[in-house]
């Protein structure tokens, strides 16, 4: 769960209090309250915004319904340039599985910026939240969203032509931050045949994993005042989101337990690790376990707290827009997707393999390339389509 700085002006009362719904039985202070009768309260931590995008980004954005029964929908971001087919990124927001929205202003700003800078089509999935919908509900929503995209690729629906006509369905990434990264990983583990879609990789930004045994970073990492990612908060998110009776060694939570990294075809895996967060050691253990299983994995460790991603959310205003450039630069996400997009211009559309290339140049990204590692070696030998 990325850090959220709480704003006392929200007027959300904290502490174990009685209420018309009974006593508070679970709480992440200032984030979410669960009452005895099952009532859930979430304060308006982050503004929700429409799909409108700042004109200078040259990105069109619209919301689309995916499944009415579960109210599953997604926000699409489609850059107007460059011409031609663009990679597709399916993105899952963070929030400990319990809070968050594809309409949150910080995610809207981040993903519209990413679509513009990386020249990629972004699909931001608004999945069901716990505890009303415990896992695997979020995984099912993620899988249904990918299968819906597959259907659009096969049917060529006129309703979705505005984005599908620009999409290179043979270059698909799953991505997310925190709980969203956990969802991306677990959706990838569940995928069967995706043709004509082809999964090239997963991008996991500080994936939210846990376990019964404590890691050193969980025990000793310093967390700032107002952080939503204390160890007790992390435990609470898992209690609220895992199936009743399950513990934190369920491989949805602890993917290295009982061979949880063995299944699935993940493509190349990029793991962005925040050096200042309690999840650091679990993320490093996850990378090692994936590598032992022969998965193509690259880790990016940076002295940049992913907590800064949401820390400024409550201070967001038109005069001080959310700045996501640091996240994109420090972890090289733009570089990865732009290299992929450029490589697609040199790859046969019918090819069943793909290689991230270093020889595709983009003058606007020269400074980024000098700061981050390339992921080329990770995909050496090609990534098979599923």
Automatic annotation (TrEMBL):
Source organism, top-level taxon: Eukaryota
Q: What Pfam families has UniProt attached to this entry?
A: Abhydrolase_3 (PF07859)
Could you say which residues form the signal peptide? none
Active-site residues?
Answer: 178
**Residues annotated as domain Alpha/beta hydrolase fold-3:** 89-301
What terms describe the molecular function in GO for this protein? Answer: hydrolase activity
Q: What is the similarity comment for this entry?
A: Belongs to the 'GDXG' lipolytic enzyme family.
Protein's UniProt name: Alpha/beta hydrolase fold-3 domain-containing protein
Q: Highest lineage ranks of the organism?
A: Eukaryota, Viridiplantae, Streptophyta, Embryophyta, Tracheophyta
């Amino acid at each position: 769960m990325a850090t959220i700085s709480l704003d006392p002006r929200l007027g959300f009362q904290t502490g174990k209090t009685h209420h018309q719904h009974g006593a508070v039985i679970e709480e992440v202070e200032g984030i979410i309250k669960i009452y005895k009768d099952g009532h859930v309260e979430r304060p308006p931590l982050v503004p929700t915004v429409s799909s409108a995008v700042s004109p200078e980004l040259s990105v069109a954005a619209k919301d689309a319904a995916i499944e009415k029964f579960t109210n599953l929908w997604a926000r699409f971001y489609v850059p107007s340039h460059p011409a031609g087919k663009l990679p597709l990124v399916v993105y899952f927001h963070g929030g400990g599985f319990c809070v968050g929205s594809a309409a949150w202003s910080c995610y809207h700003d981040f993903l519209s910026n990413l679509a513009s800078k990386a020249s990629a089509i972004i699909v931001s999935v608004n999945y069901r939240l716990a505890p009303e919908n415990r896992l695997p509900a979020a995984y099912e929503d993620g899988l249904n969203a990918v299968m819906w995209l597959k259907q659009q690729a096969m049917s060529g629906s006129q309703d979705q032509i505005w984005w599908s006509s620009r999409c290179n369905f043979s270059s698909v990434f799953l991505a997310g931050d925190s709980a969203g990264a956990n969802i991306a990983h677990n959706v990838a583990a569940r995928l069967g045949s995706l043709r004509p879609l082809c999964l090239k990789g997963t991008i996991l930004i500080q994936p939210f994993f846990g376990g019964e045994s404590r890691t050193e970073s969980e025990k000793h990492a310093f967390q700032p005042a107002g952080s939503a990612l204390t160890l007790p908060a992390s435990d609470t998110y898992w209690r609220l989101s895992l199936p009743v009776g399950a513990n934190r060694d369920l491989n949805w939570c602890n993917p290295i337990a009982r061979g949880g990294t063995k299944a699935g075809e993940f493509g190349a895996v990029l793991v962005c690790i925040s050096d200042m967060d309690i999840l650091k050691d679990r993320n490093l253990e996850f990378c090692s376990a994936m590598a032992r299983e022969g998965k193509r994995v690259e880790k990016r460790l940076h002295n940049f707290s992913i907590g800064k991603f949401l820390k400024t959310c409550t201070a967001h205003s038109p005069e001080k827009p959310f700045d996501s450039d640091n996240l994109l630069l420090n972890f090289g996400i733009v570089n990865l997707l732009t290299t992929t997009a450029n490589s697609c211009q040199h790859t046969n559309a019918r090819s069943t393999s793909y290689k991230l290339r270093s020889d595709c140049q983009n003058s606007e990204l020269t400074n980024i390339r000098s700061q981050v590692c390339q992921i080329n070696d990770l995909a050496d030998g090609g990534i098979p389509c599923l």
